[in-house]
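Hi there,

I know you've been waiting on this one. I reran it after we fixed the sequence typo, so this is the corrected version. Both the input and the resulting structure follow.
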Amino acid sequence: MTAANNTKSPLSRIKTSMSTASDGFHAFLLLLPYGILFSMFIAIPILVAFGLSFTYFDLVQAPTFAGLTNYIALLTQDTIFFQHVLPNTLQFAIIVGPGGYMIAFMMAWILAQIQALPRTIFALFLYMPSLAPGVFVGVLWTTIFSGNQHGYVNALLLNWNLIDQPLQFLQSPEHLMNIMIIVSLWSAMGIGFLAMLAGILNINEELYEAAYIDGIRNRFQEIIYITIPSVRPQMLFGAVMAIVGAFNAGAIGVTLSGANPTPQNAGQLITNHIDDFAFIRFEMGYAAAISVVLLCMVWVFSKLTYKFFGDTD
């Protein structure tokens, strides 16, 4: 092959070089829109946040360099962050992330076993809560857990004589986090759920037939040995989306309780802490430092997820 290439005429080599350059240019044009959008909405904002995290910036005066002051203050002086925000975020993410992910996978597997028309209808109903805007979610669940006798839960408890007076569910530190978890699991059937459903539906049926010939005897073994290995890319995508969604969920607590910070910081998550310092106290540099810490946490958990569901070859 090398000898053949060496015997090519100069004109042939020029044409080959021009064809390669043309292919590279077409590939560049194809990737250019993605590169522009990625830079505008991801890369540049991350770099700006990282830069601001080393400054003092109050939106009035120009940012002034502060070195590691914001990070030192976060690690040594922010007692609310370590006593409430970080434990709440980890508890919420550990329950809602894996919990919502497992529920999404099981529902996708169950729907894959039924006929196309009812599957489409049920999938639409399961997916709709993830599309519901925050205002709709707030109105629905604040009505259910309203702190007066008109709230559905309080009305049932009063009618059953289980309580003497309405409970303030959304203002109570004992109940707020649990309600946030319930609402988040209710809306956990997002794009990851659809990806896993599509992956399961596209598994070659011959794999199941061959597996039963080789010794598989029940549906549990079918899921472990055929379904999960066949949809690893979709499961990886769903896991990453679940992690990102769990760590970025913050509006739900503020929407339910109607305040930021939430009552006694019971539902205060990292994103609420960022909003508190950025848009209430106007300490943009400190808020940027917290956002960088959140980004690092999401990155670490995403890497761990890739270890489980990424390619093992």
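Quick highlight: The longest helix spans residues 10-52.

Best,
R. S.
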